[in-house]
Amino acid sequence: MIITILMLIFAILLFSAAGFLLSSKSSLLIIKEVPNEHVANLNFFRFYGFALLLCGLFNLVLLFFQPAWLLLTFLIITCFLILFFILGLNKRIH
Question: Could you tell me if 63 and 11 are in contact, meaning their C-beta atoms sit under 8 angstroms apart?
Answer without folding.
Answer: yes
